[in-house]
Amino acid sequence: MCDFVSRNKDLFNELDKFIYSVKDNENKLMTTLHYAQKLFGYLPKDIQVYIAKNLNLPFDQVKNTVNFYSYFVTELKGKYKIKVCLGNACSKDDSSSILNEFERLIGIKPGETTKDMKFSLESGGCVGVCRKTPIVTINGRVYESVTVEDIPSILETCI
Ligand code: FES
Average pLDDT for residues 97-103, to the nearest whole number? Predict the structure, then answer.
């Protein structure tokens, strides 16, 4: 039994019961992945391997399904998912300075999550609202025309 499984034995016991209840269903993989993500909050490789083994499916089938649907997440994220747009329009308005300021204030780099699981930071391409750049989103909420000076007050809304 791998470390991750032994550290989360109770949750895997729950998952076992669920798998047993759906093992003959046609869509057992999707329903199990949904259930497992609800249970664990994410679907890292250890959980995918476990599901593949216990549903008697090839690991690649499980992995490809998880990767295909953006609903499934493979890394545990913070309560507040901050995304700074670095698309063309936002970059022209110096969105990299916005990103740098978030990094400085919460102490993490893009792709990381704070130890207290409060914030995850990401940067990425255009999010489709280029009218009032630069754009930041937090859990999908859009902040427009963000300045470096706005960032402390934006973070204060995350309580
Ligand atoms: S480039 Fe940032 S929202 Fe489009």
Answer: 98
